[in-house]
Design a protein that fits this description.
- This protein has 203 residues and is an alpha/beta fold.
- The protein has one domain: Phosphoglycerate mutase-like (Rossmann fold).
- Helix content is 32%, strand content 13%.
- It is built from 6 helices and 6 strands.
- It has a 6-stranded mixed β-sheet, sandwiched between helices.
- β5 and β6 form a beta hairpin.
- It is globular.
- The chain starts with 8 loop residues before the first strand and ends with a strand.
């Protein structure tokens, strides 16, 4: 498969959920934002609006995409409150959903059997290809994100998940796999991706 050329992207990870706060594997479980996550989403919207204004860019210059899970839908809704002008519609795409952790979803990081998964901070580069029972690995996520990229028509604003952010670092920023899979993607910043570069805005 030919790797597509990725356009400019502003990426926002969904705000904190109760499971994030507990350090619990979330994956495809549809867990809502907590109060802190709701506040993070609003602040990220203000950060994004200020960034676009400073660059002389209109939000209508961008496609708006999000994962269809409720925590990303609510984050997107709150981000968009920072804009007063009419906005393009949000396109929800299942290819932007979080990596599936399969049988370990719902488990705390601290209670994982060593043969089932390794929490961020203790992973080696081979973890990119580790697939938990009934779940995905990061190579699977890379494949579906490249399929998604082939459908994009231009610069985009994306609200999705931590696993998506890690994968984008590898395929757009060209970050080292070991760094990316052990990185904890923040929930209170906007990430600006261009080929070979990721800039962190806010926080």
């Amino acid at each position: 498969m030919t790797t597509p050329t990725w356009p400019e992207i502003y990426f926002i990870r969904h705000g904190e959920t109760p499971w994030n706060a507990e350090r619990r594997y979330q994956g495809r479980k549809d867990i809502p934002l907590n109060e802190r996550g709701q506040a993070q989403a609003l602040e990220n919207g203000r950060t994004l609006a200020a960034e676009l204004k400073a660059r002389g860019r209109s939000p209508s210059d961008f496609e708006w995409h999000a994962s269809p899970l409720s925590r990303t839908r609510e984050t997107m809704d709150r981000v968009r409150r920072a804009f007063t002008e009419p906005l393009p519609p949000v396109k929800y795409d299942v290819r932007l959903m979080e990596i599936s952790f399969g049988a370990i979803e719902g488990m705390l990081h601290s209670e994982l059997p060593a043969n089932m998964a390794v929490a961020p901070g203790g992973r080696d580069a081979a973890y990119w290809h580790f697939r938990p029972q009934d779940g995905e690995n990061y190579a699977d996520v890379e494949l579906r994100l490249n399929e998604f990229a082939a459908t994009m028509q231009g610069p985009s604003i994306i609200v999705a998940h931590g696993g998506i952010a890690r994968t984008l670092r590898v395929i757009i920023e060209r970050a080292d796999v070991l760094d990316a899979i052990n990185w904890a993607p923040p929930q209170d910043v906007v990430l600006h991706f261009q080929p070979g570069v990721m800039k962190v805005i806010g926080g």
